[in-house]
Design brief:
By secondary structure, this protein is α/β, with parallel strands linked by helices. It has 9 helices and 4 strands, in the order αβαβαβαβααααα. The protein binds zinc ion.
Length: 249
């Protein structure tokens, strides 16, 4: 976009979608930017659903850096402090509000607890201090968590079947196929380990930075998952737009 195109995209009921990923270890078979690829796919799928109903949504360049403390001992992982991640998102929202966007939506599938807390804090600050509505479907919470397949619900879902399938659909050339095919399942539940106070992938039972079933991944499942993520984002945005319309009445 040029600045004039961005000016034209803003306005009442205009939606800006920020894909937020991480640069983080994702097993020996997926690239560090896996969560960026997933967030971009989610944002695009959500924007397509909105466009089909006549709602214009602008997908921003992805924010690739955030908090990733669980993976920080693995080479390549670059973790921001949660307060830094919160401040970046709030600053971006201030710019979007200044230029007339009516709603910020956050497309995110990176589930590090410090990261999710930083986004929840950012959403709160943006609503309170900037008066800008925010749609942020936190995938670890109801109702969204139940819609993303069995591996996701089990919590063994980092660089496993769920995420590997999406990268196979979006950027197959980045998947190290010969390695993926040989990876044994790791059914250790990352979400349970987090609830039990673990602080790293190693402590949670993932000494190769993956959980779940990467060898089961398929591009077809990835395409279906991207649609499910797009639907979740679309529904969260529709709910916010509905609340804005109610307030305006
Ligand atoms: Zn991930």
């Amino acid at each position: 976009m040029t600045w004039e195109e961005a000016r034209a995209a803003a306005g009442p009921r205009s939606v800006a979608i920020l894909p937020v990923g991480a640069i983080e270890a994702h097993g020996p078979h997926l690239p560090l930017e896996t969560d960026v690829i997933i967030a971009q796919a989610m944002a695009r799928a959500g924007a397509e659903r909105l466009a089909a109903r006549g709602v214009s949504a602008t997908v921003l360049p992805a924010l690739p850096f955030t908090t990733a403390r669980f993976a920080q001992n693995f080479a390549g992982t670059l973790s921001l402090r949660p307060a830094t991640a919160t401040a970046i998102v709030v600053d971006l929202a201030a710019g979007l509000g200044r230029h007339g966007f009516a709603l910020l939506a956050i497309a995110n599938a990176h589930l590090d607890p410090g990261h999710l807390a930083s986004l929840e804090a950012a959403a709160g600050d943006i609503r309170r201090e900037l008066g800008l509505p925010v749609a942020f479907p936190n995938l670890t919470l109801k109702p969204w968590a139940t819609r993303l397949g069995e591996e996701f619900r089990s919590g063994a879902c980092h660089a496993g079947q769920f995420e590997t399938s999406i990268v196979l659909a979006e950027r197959p050339e980045l998947v190290r196929e010969s390695i993926r095919a040989t990876l044994p399942p790791n059914p250790a539940s990352l979400s349970r380990a987090i609830r039990n106070g673990k602080q790293s992938f190693e402590d949670a039972g993932g000494d190769q930075a993956y959980f779940g079933y990467p060898s089961q991944a398929t591009a077809a499942e990835g395409r279906a998952t991207i649609e499910a993520l797009g639907a979740i984002l679309d529904e969260a945005i529709q709910a916010e737009l509905g609340a804005m319309a109610d307030q305006a009445r």
